[in-house]
Write a structure and sequence with these properties.
By secondary structure, this protein is of the alpha+beta class. Helices cover 41% and strands 20% of the residues. It contains 7 helices and 10 strands. Keywords: Membrane, Transmembrane, Transmembrane helix.
């Protein structure tokens, strides 16, 4: 007969609970029974469980303190070209009518000045001159990665000596790693900073911040 336990007298409820506890197997037997059930799981179930646990750990690493979050990755090349190019500025090449924006770096703008030993100097023009020197005779082998909002082709290029021209410019201190788009040249930037090469031998405004400031001033 069905009844509500809460309606029973207190002493009867206590006796009923005691009887139920006495009828249950001891804790160690219940644990052993569950372990035996786990041991009978088929291999496929174990594989699925391991996969779920692995994914949970990976996801926790991503969203934990942020240290495991990967940076922006360089896109896959969509084409490859070999052309004669010249330096427009520290991070852009001209190849005939085409403009190639070098991927992963940002160099001072042509009109930009930096400071060294308390005096201003034309770091934008010096960055362009450094790029021209790295280009040598100007023959470059480039992987085209896409295009930017200005219609320039985004490229990763090597000179005739096989040097990654972006890596060399950053290593010399005339460009910085453009972390918003790529982490490929962070090591070269760290090296240039430690050695105080190029713009690191003094004070400078990051090119992206410089452009934003100029645009903001023009808007007013």
């Amino acid at each position: 007969m069905w009844f509500r336990r809460s309606r029973l007298p207190p002493d009867l409820r206590d006796a009923l609970r005691a009887a139920e506890r006495a009828a249950r197997p001891p804790l160690h037997r219940r644990v052993a029974a569950r372990l035996r059930a786990v041991g009978r799981m088929p291999l496929l179930a174990w594989i699925v469980l391991a996969g779920l646990l692995g994914f949970a750990g990976w996801k926790a690493g991503l969203v934990g303190d942020g240290a495991s979050v990967a940076g922006p990755s360089t896109p896959r090349p969509v084409a490859r070209i070999t052309v004669r190019a010249s330096a427009v500025d520290g991070d852009t090449l001209a190849a005939g009518a085409d403009r190639l924006r070098i991927n992963g770096i940002d160099a001072p703008e042509m009109a930009q000045s930096c400071e060294r030993a308390g005096a201003a100097y034309p770091c934008g023009r010096l960055a362009r001159d450094a790029m021209a020197s790295i280009l040598g005779r100007g023959m470059v082998d480039c992987e085209i990665l896409g295009a930017d909002q200005y219609g320039r082709r985004i490229a990763r290029c090597r000179n005739e000596a096989g040097q990654d021209i972006a890596a060399e410019l950053v290593r010399q201190g005339w460009a910085i790693a453009f972390r918003r788009f790529s982490l490929d040249y962070v090591g070269q930037e760290d090296e240039a900073r430690r050695a105080r090469r190029g713009i690191w031998d003094g004070r400078f405004e990051e090119p992206d911040a410089y452009r934003a400031r100029i645009r903001s001033g023009a808007a007013h």
